[in-house]
Amino acid sequence: LIHVFLLLYCCYCFYIPVYSQNNKDNFPNKKFEQDYLFVQKKVFENSVSAGDTNTAISALQNILVLQPDDSIRKLSLLNLYFSSGKYKTTMQLASKYLEKDRDNISILDAYSKSAEYLGLKNDALNSYEKLFYLTDDSYYGYLMAYMQYEMFRYAECYQSTLKLFAHKNLHKKSVIVNF
Length: 179
Fold this sequence. Notes:
The chain has nine helices and no strands. The chain is mostly helical. Helix 8 runs antiparallel to helix 9. The N terminus is likely disordered.
């Protein structure tokens, strides 16, 4: 345990300030980079199991500096930001990821829900429309119609609702309504 703590302390004090995402040659050797990555993965696992979202986010950010193309960790980071209520950060990060992967369903979903929670109805509507047409999932059709209704676009909402009622998979979905 003391070795892990010392390794983390050394990483944060001596190597992290000079390390940048654009220059991967700053680590003194490959073995150190592998050890650092191993430690960050353990920190992430431990913090998730302990429910420490902030530490998990920090560890994922450190891992993504070394492995910027790790799409699973990118989605995990988005989910952590979203689940901790950091919707603006989720939207900003999702926007960045969508620049490279415009049609990623999971990233679009995080972006649209964050936009909705932030009150950015037009952004949410545009994303829900795109999700509906990409997935053909009636869930996104419902969210699209709901956002149109929220934005007082009643004619569009009516048309979307008609499309939704005619949707081939609508009978397979269930809705729970609580009063």
